[in-house]
Specification:
The protein is α/β, with parallel strands linked by helices and 224 residues long. The chain is 48% helix and 16% strand. Helix 4 links the parallel strand 6 and strand 7. Bound molecules: zinc ion. The site of zinc ion has 5 residues, from loops.
Length: 224
């Protein structure tokens, strides 16, 4: 009898605990509270990035980044953008404008030391058949591989991207940034269908949703 009562008490306690955990998880509206995330929209100003007709990479990068910023702020994150308008970060009159722009972004991100940074770009290739959001990472931070694979899995599920996360060591910016983070190429401007999609707010929102869900997953798994 005593054993039966003991088992009942343990059972009820576990049930109450499970309910408490479930209620807590579902009622937390700010799961990213206190997390600092830097979004780095590539190019800007005099540097349009990849261009096809009047569609410029810099505009797509910024549009996706601004939607993403709002979503992350709503989840409680502290969010900074390396640019929030149409300009680059090169020092005025810099001899090597591109290099100066990249080094400024590196400095901003390293000094802020965020929990995560995301560089947002658009891919271009010499065949118009390639498509799909693709994530690139440098091993400079040991967390980067898992982060890249998590985003890439999200793109596969949410956007049917056929690409795989790519390890790189030749990208100056990704090599020099110490905090965890990756480069996300949200699609191929060289693919007519994807180019058209990427100019639409609905598709930009889909991209931002996929990125947000992957951040939530990484946060939940304590990977960032
Ligand atoms: Zn780019």
């Amino acid at each position: 009898m005593k054993q039966f009562i003991l088992i009942c008490i343990i059972g009820i306690t576990m049930l109450i605990l499970a309910i408490a955990i479930a209620v807590n998880a579902s009622s937390n509206p700010f799961p990213l509270l206190g997390k600092m995330i830097i979004i780095d929209p590539g190019h800007g100003g005099k540097d349009p990035g990849a261009v096809v007709g009047d569609i410029k990479e810099k505009d797509i990068n910024l549009a996706v980044s601004l939607i993403l910023e709002e979503k992350l702020l709503n989840l409680g994150a502290i969010v900074y953008l390396t640019r929030s308008k149409d300009y680059d970060l090169a020092t005025p009159g810099a001899h090597h404008r591109k290099r100066s722009d990249i080094l400024s972004r590196v400095r901003v991100i390293n000094n802020a030391n965020p929990d995560l940074y995301l560089s947002i770009h658009v891919n271009a290739y010499n065949s118009n058949r390639w498509y799909g959001a693709n994530v690139y990472f440098d091993d400079v931070n040991p967390k980067n591989e898992l982060i890249a694979k998590t985003f890439q899995e999200g793109f596969k599920k949410d956007l049917k991207s056929p690409r795989s996360a790519m390890r790189v060591s030749h990208l100056l910016m990704q090599r020099l940034i110490k905090p965890p983070g990756v480069l996300i190429e949200v699609g191929f401007i060289s693919n007519p269908h994807e180019r058209n999609q990427m100019t639409k707010k609905s598709y930009q929102t889909k991209l931002a949703n996929s990125i947000t869900n992957s951040i939530l997953r990484l946060n939940q798994e304590k990977s960032i």
